[in-house]
């Protein structure tokens, strides 16, 4: 057996090892279906398999790391480890809304696998039609299972479960672009290029807020590495399989990566067709036709296979009007999105892009790279703004295109490093310091707030990111837990970045004693249902002044609160008050009169405009609730 294994190539031995690991997991799942070790070991196997896939992608792309490259990669990873630890330890943050979405999914996956492997995998695969799939939690359980399982530890664990693969591919992308640009000063180019991309704030921002959406960039960068210099001159089954797998995985990571997929592949197809046209014009018509044939064949087969594999998601996209439902998040269409992109990229990076464009055009070094990046970016932006404007975590889907524009600039700096060396190194160093200093907070994510000045921004940022009212929030949560018996609920009207029900439900993660005792809020038209939980609740919570940290002009919670205050004394009596220590007072009201049709219709009538647009979320919900209760 030893001699037989020694004759196998390294790839064969690695594959055999993964097969043996999968078999061992199968045996463990059958022998001990409720074992607490099963899910962490499955996650570890998935992480190792994905890292092996990353190495295969790099090898197929013709990228090789030497000792210097490995030292830089390890050094940046160690710096990221310290940065994440420092960033997370210097704040008191309560995870809410999307910032709690994935950790809740992680808890759900753990609970499902604790029942049986079938229940666990059923949860994972059964979510593929949902807007938020359970695909990412499959890779995050290890090492999350070894921690105290809080929101901060969930964010910190991504340094181990996501960042190594992402950083390795990012380094591979830098080298690949350097090869295509034929960079001579490789030392400076690699240092400048990788550090510039790695410290870009929007790469890490969602991760520090426990939104592991950057996991999808593993597959996005894999797609770039497998395609940048490939023109379908020949059929390569392994490359095609890897491309298909990466495309499916990036879509499963987060639905909006589809905009990157469509924008990039369309731009790449145009690039291949232009290359084929030039090849045919040079007299090699047979070779040109072969390129086009292979491109069309791969595209059609991949499209059909992707639709079959992800049909539940595709079907939902085709039947669900995201542009209508997400209209609340449209802050101004294309013009506003261009402003946001400009604001987030920043002057320093635009200088770098300008240097790169000059470098590629002047020296005729791979001008296709900035063309590919620019066209992909433009198409992705146009497609995305048909639905909504971006928040900062959605910048991730544009990063591959922006990075293709950054890297020629890094090459330009490196090639001209001997001229005005001090100035260029100072520019590079200042950019890195500035990028690292950008703090990842909810208000940085919502960077288009109509704030009235820097002082107001700082105040609100401190209130939402560095919670000084955590004892008061826990006290209210304890009050709800004490006063609501099993089956009884309470309802919170505020639904804001400063205060919403998630703050109170998640203030003691991983324990959530009032998760079933405090209902989700009502704020976003087209997304949130008319809150019948309000009429079922034993207690109703509101605040004065009413939180308005991040709301649009069509916010529903503020209107609902005004309606409540106008008739409050007819149905409720004062139960308790809490001073939050920041100028806000929470009041808890106890229902004293059973809900009636007149009360429901009173609140519903104030949302007639929304009801006309979304009757299935307003009047139909209310009528069904009333009919069930004979009202």
Key descriptive features of the protein:
mainly alpha; 5-stranded mixed β-sheet; single chain; 631 residues
What topology emerges from the helices and strands here?
Blueprint: H1 2-7, H2 10-31, H3 38-60, H4 67-89, H5 101-115, H6 117-125, H7 137-144, H8 151-161, H9 163-181, H10 186-198, H11 201-208, H12 217-227, H13 237-253, H14 258-281, H15 285-309, H16 311-319, H17 322-325, H18 333-363, H19 368-384, H20 399-415, H21 421-437, H22 442-445, H23 454-465, H24 470-483, E1 490-492, H25 501-505, E2 518-519, H26 533-536, E3 539-544, H27 557-571, E4 572-579, E5 585-591, H28 597-605, H29 608-613, H30 619-628
Parallel strand pairs: 1-2, 1-3
Antiparallel strand pairs: 3-5, 4-5
The gross shape turns out to be globular
Gyration radius, rounded = 27 Å
Proportion in helices: 55-70%
Describe the strand arrangement of the main beta sheet, using strand numbers: 2-1-3-5-4
Strand count, sense and barrel status of the largest sheet are:
5 strands, mixed
Number of strands: 5
Strand content: under 5%
Distance from N terminus to C terminus (CA atoms, Å) equals 76 Å
Class of secondary structure makeup: mainly alpha
Average pLDDT number: 91
* DSSP summary: helix tally: 30
Which residues form runs of ≥5 with pLDDT under 50? Answer: none
Short description:
This protein is mostly helical and 631 residues long.
Commentary on this structure:
The chain contains 30 helices and five strands. With 631 residues, it is mainly alpha-helical. Strands 2-1-3-5-4 form a five-stranded mixed β-sheet. A hairpin with a 5-residue loop joins strand 4 (572-579) and strand 5.
């Amino acid at each position: 057996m030893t001699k037989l294994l020694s004759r196998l190539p390294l790839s064969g031995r690695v594959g055999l090892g993964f097969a043996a690991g999968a078999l061992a997991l199968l045996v463990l799942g059958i022998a001990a279906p409720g074992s607490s070790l099963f899910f962490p070991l499955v996650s570890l196997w998935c992480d190792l398999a994905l890292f092996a896939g990353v190495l295969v992608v790099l090898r197929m792309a013709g990228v090789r790391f030497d000792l210097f490259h490995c030292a830089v990669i390890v050094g940046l990873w160690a710096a990221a480890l310290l940065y994440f630890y420092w960033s997370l330890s210097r704040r008191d943050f309560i995870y809410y809304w999307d910032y709690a979405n994935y950790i809740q999914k992680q808890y759900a996956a753990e609970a499902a696998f604790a029942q049986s492997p079938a229940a666990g995998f059923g949860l994972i695969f059964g979510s593929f039609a949902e807007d938020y799939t359970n695909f990412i939690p499959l890779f995050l359980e290890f090492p999350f299972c070894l921690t105290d399982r809080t929101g901060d530890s969930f964010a910190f664990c991504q340094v181990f479960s996501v960042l190594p693969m992402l950083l390795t591919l990012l380094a591979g992308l830098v080298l690949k672009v350097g090869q295509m640009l034929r960079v001579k000063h490789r030392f400076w180019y690699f240092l400048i290029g990788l550090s510039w991309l790695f410290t870009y704030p929007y790469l890490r921002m969602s991760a520090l807020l426990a939104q592991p959406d950057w996991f999808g960039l593993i597959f996005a960068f894999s797609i770039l590495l497998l395609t940048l210099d490939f023109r379908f001159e020949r059929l390569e089954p392994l490359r095609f399989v890897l491309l298909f797998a990466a495309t499916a995985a990036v879509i499963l990571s987060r639905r909006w990566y589809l905009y990157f997929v469509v924008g990039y592949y369309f731009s790449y197809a145009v690039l291949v067709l232009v290359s084929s046209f030039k090849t045919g014009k040079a007299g090699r018509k047979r070779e040109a036709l072969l390129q086009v044939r292979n491109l069309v064949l791969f595209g059609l087969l991949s499209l059909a296979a992707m639709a079959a594999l992800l049909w539940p998601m595709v079907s939902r996209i085709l039947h669900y009007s995201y542009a209508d439902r997400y209209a609340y998040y449209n802050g101004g269409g294309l013009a506003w999105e261009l402003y946001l992109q400009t604001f987030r990229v920043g002057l320093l990076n635009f200088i770098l892009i300008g240097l790169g464009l000059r470098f590629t055009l002047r020296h005729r070094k791979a001008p296709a790279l900035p063309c590919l990046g620019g066209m992909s970016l433009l198409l992705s932006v146009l497609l995305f703004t048909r639905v909504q404007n971006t928040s900062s975590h959605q910048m991730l889907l544009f990063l591959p295109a922006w990075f293709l524009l950054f890297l020629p600039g890094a090459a330009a700096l490196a090639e001209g490093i001997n001229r005005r060396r001090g100035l260029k190194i100072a520019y590079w160093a200042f950019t890195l310091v500035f990028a690292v200093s950008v703090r990842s907070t909810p208000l940085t994510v919502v960077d288009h707030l109509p704030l009235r000045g820097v002082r107001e921004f700082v105040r609100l940022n401190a209130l939402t990111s560095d919670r000084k009212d955590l004892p008061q929030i826990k006290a209210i949560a304890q009050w709800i837990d004490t006063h609501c018996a099993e089956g009884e609920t309470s309802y919170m009207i505020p639904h804001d970045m400063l205060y919403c029900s998630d703050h109170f439900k998640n203030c003691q993660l991983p324990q959530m004693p009032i998760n079933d005792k405090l209902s989700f809020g009502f704020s976003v038209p087209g997304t949130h249902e008319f809150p019948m939980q309000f009429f079922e609740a034993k207690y109703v919570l509101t605040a004065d002044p009413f939180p308005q940290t991040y709301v649009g002009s069509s916010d529903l919670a503020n209107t609902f609160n005004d309606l409540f205050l106008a008739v409050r004394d007819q149905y409720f009596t004062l139960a308790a008050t809490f001073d939050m220590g920041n100028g806000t007072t929470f009041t808890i009201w106890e229902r004293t009169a059973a809900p009636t049709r007149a009360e429901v219709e009173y609140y519903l009538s104030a949302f007639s405009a929304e009801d006309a647009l979304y009757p299935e979320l307003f009047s139909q919900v209310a009528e069904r609730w009333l009919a069930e209760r004979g009202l």
